[in-house]
Amino acid sequence: MKKLVESVPNISEGRDKDVIEEIVNEFKKFKNIKILEVSSDESHNRTVVTIVGNVDDVVEGLFYFTKKAVELIDLNKHKGEHPRIGAVDVIPLIPISGITKNELNNYVKLLGERIWNELNVPVYFYADSAANEERRKLPNIRKGEFEGLVEKMKEPNWHPDIGNPIPHSTAGATVIGVREFLIAYNINLATPDVSIAEKIAKSIRESSGGLMYLQARGFYLEDKNCAQVSMNILNFKKLPLYRVYEIVKMEAEKYGTYIKESELVGLIPLKAVLDSFSFYIKLPELNLDKVIEYKIWGEE
Amino acid sequence: MKKLVESVPNISEGRDKDVIEEIVNEFKKFKNIKILEVSSDESHNRTVVTIVGNVDDVVEGLFYFTKKAVELIDLNKHKGEHPRIGAVDVIPLIPISGITKNELNNYVKLLGERIWNELNVPVYFYADSAANEERRKLPNIRKGEFEGLVEKMKEPNWHPDIGNPIPHSTAGATVIGVREFLIAYNINLATPDVSIAEKIAKSIRESSGGLMYLQARGFYLEDKNCAQVSMNILNFKKLPLYRVYEIVKMEAEKYGTYIKESELVGLIPLKAVLDSFSFYIKLPELNLDKVIEYKIWGEE
Description:
The structure is a homodimer.
Chain A (H helix, E strand, L loop, with lengths): L3 E4 L2 E2 L5 H12 L4 E9 L4 E9 H18 L15 E10 L3 H19 L3 E3 L7 H4 L1 H5 L6 H6 L19 E5 L4 E7 L4 H11 L9 E8 L4 E8 L7 H14 L4 E7 L4 H11 L11 H6 L3
Parallel strand pairs in A: 5-7, 6-7
Antiparallel strand pairs in A: 1-4, 1-5, 2-4, 2-5, 3-4, 8-10, 8-11, 9-10
Helix pairs in contact in A: 1-2, 2-3, 7-8
């Protein structure tokens, strides 16, 4: 069974195309890594790379990607709107299929140790790899940024998880962690009344006391002249797509409207598709390897 | 994009395990062919092999599989309950993803020509590769069997599609054709009354004037003490799974019962899953390459 993972490393360089290319090219040396997107933002002065592949290759590729970024990026000269503490600021790792979060977490630890041992960059673990609640959230770790890192690291509760409490002189520190795949999912309503989308969003999102793992906002889409409930599902295993759809459907009826269509922004893991498919046609025992394509390509 | 196809060749040997193994082993020489099942029946004296893989490898593998079967099987000595006209009796080819039926049909023609040119076995095309309506159905071609083939082939309307009208002296003729993937799908009802399952089956199947591409029968399942509508969906592109589910659901309500659960027998192509998934959550633009696993493994 292939162990498929995604990673979305962020580097603190969004302007110098040659530097960005040289760093991203490290991934191209791996046959089993696929680069899905490279997105640079000049005002943030930051580039976000999305890759997918077999876990061994992805972790190996991330090390060489980090090595090159540490060589080429000097945070003492870096200016940008987005907060950052490292040349490679954050490396999220996401299990897709054939691997659990716990198993992936072991890879995260090895990657962190290698980055410290070979590159002298201290490492923090965040998200589901965090050692305590305070470190789960990236903004807590990043607070004070690169410029405040020498002082911050001296505080005992901000010692890094791996390495001595001394930032790398040009590359700062790197934050690594396992998190769940995020599904960006929008539902368009059969009404142009944005207040309905806003009321639905408010009643279902976690921050307003609704469903855990759900972020939601209401928008008006000019090109389609309709209201949209725009959502992020932060954990599709605990909050399956069909439940989100059915709850929005129910709430829409309350306001005398209905769902016109829905849309996925970006990709979706096969497991998320199967969970909803099997809900609707009452297939209790549907596994990934019932799908021909997965059976062929997911096994080695 | 990988061109994924399935094939289910049938050979006229179901008893001699050494012979069967030697023939099936031809597929093991291909890294990109996966053998899903080898099912031998002694009374039929016949073996059905299920393989999946990239179209080029599958077609190449099928040739060497046929070559070996022609070498090792002598139909003059063959006895069994199942009708047959060839050592390799029939080779169905099924498009799974990344390839159309028309494109696959070109491969079928090349395979047929090679079997004639190099092995001297004449070839008939059936199913969606048939030259006329009469040849669409396998029983029409197979009528008279191996023993009657010398005479049958002399009739102008039973000349083979490829090769001279003379059967191979020990291997007869081979029938090849493209067909759609068949989904074996059962729905269990919340009642032990088999007459309800039978009435539903009769009202929805093609042979009784219901839905095209649907075969259906009613059964009683002793282990679950429930009635089952057991179905084959012969073309899931024209008759999607959700439509079958929803119609059985509707009919069950008519008899005061409901669907307890459904089950897939064997595998399902990703496209069939996506078609139903996108129906239920109104996702009009869902393509295979929105699914991460397909995007990674389906593209080369």
